[in-house]
TrEMBL record:
Pathway: Amino-acid metabolism; lysine degradation; Amino-acid metabolism; tryptophan metabolism
Keywords: FAD, Flavoprotein, Oxidoreductase, Transit peptide
GO MF assignments: fatty-acyl-CoA binding; flavin adenine dinucleotide binding; glutaryl-CoA dehydrogenase activity
Taxonomy, superkingdom: Bacteria
E.C. number: 1.3.8.6
Principal EC category: oxidoreductase
InterPro entries the record matches: Acyl-CoA_DH_CS, Acyl-CoA_Oxase/DH_mid-dom, Acyl-CoA_Oxase/DH_mid-dom_sf, AcylCo_DH-like_C, AcylCo_DH/oxidase_C, AcylCoA_DH/ox_N, AcylCoA_DH/ox_N_sf, AcylCoA_DH/oxidase_NM_dom_sf
Domain Acyl-CoA oxidase/dehydrogenase middle positions: 140-230
Swiss-Prot/TrEMBL GO biological process terms: fatty acid beta-oxidation using acyl-CoA dehydrogenase; fatty-acyl-CoA biosynthetic process
Protein name as annotated: glutaryl-CoA dehydrogenase (ETF)
Amino acid sequence: MSDRHKAAAPDAHDFLAVDASLSEEEAAIRDTVRDFAARELLPNVADWFDAGTIPEARALAESFGELGVFGMHLEGYGCAGTSAVAYGLACRELEAVDSGLRSFVSVQGSLAMAAIHKYGSEEQKTEWLPRMAAGRAVGCFGLTEPDAGSDPGSMRTRARRDGSDWVLDGVKMWITNGSIADVAVVWADTEEGVRGFLVPTDAPGFTANTIHRKLSLRASITSELVLEGVRLPAEARLPGATGLGAPLSCLNEARYGIVWGAAGAGRACYEAALDYASTRVQFGRPIAGFQLTQRKLADMVVDVNHANLTALQIGRLKDRGACHHNHVSFGKFANVAAAQRVARTARSIHGANGITLEYPVLRHMVNLETVATYEGTEEIHALSLGQAVTGVAAFR
């Protein structure tokens, strides 16, 4: 074979040339979000994680709004209307910095905004979506409860009619952005089944309590929502949302972002380990030159590239309108597990240095413990896949 026919050696940072297959527009969006993340997020994220919060969360929301990532896959009302792949790439670049930052964006866009966009009245869309897209208003999504996680149908939050009004009582738990939100999309059981409501957070009877002492997703604001006799007008109900399928469809949108985000977290850990192994000298040479370290790096590069291929294929399916919710379950199940393996291995390569915030690996590792259980636990997604391939439901 002549030299001109020889393939170029693989790029250690894109071994299977996954990103090389992106369109020009997709690559431009990736680079824009990556540059923003490197400039505005990465220098601060270790301090935010250490502090257990995002000190200037409202200012960050406006920065995300200017970047155009809030609801970027939605059409109209100030949203960018990008492809699913472009949105996924944005999630990947954000989670390569920290899972909490991707969660900030996906809860705003794929849960709160998507619920309003899909199920809201024209008045609700016009009131909230442009401000949320710009980051001037923040939303949260209240589905999970202290005793209703994987089984949201057992929720205890109730909405009852009182004349033309609705009155809501209940507690929601583990709600991202809850303490800084202007509006909460709250799901409640009614005499007619599960319904969604837009609850202004300054409504009498509504309280958001920030959850402290977390060991994961510390660069994120997580809250408990308490509703005690919150009275809402009839027009606060999302008119298109009937039944539990409505909030679950929103969760599927957010899970899609996790498929890409986990690939970003895994990539960040792999790249940190590759750099560290190449510069850390022991026994007279870089540890990258030892067989056991090279085996670890080989396992990591396979996991990272498999995750990127999975995310891209599901994104392409989504853009063709051919993405089933089981495809998203496949992606979350596979990519989170891959990212967890990569993070654990990267931490071992870093040795004692791996437990400090000077390096990103343990921060990603503990964040992924949350990513593995929120928006569908690993077990629930395994059962979804099992049902998909056998035709037999094993949930109950």
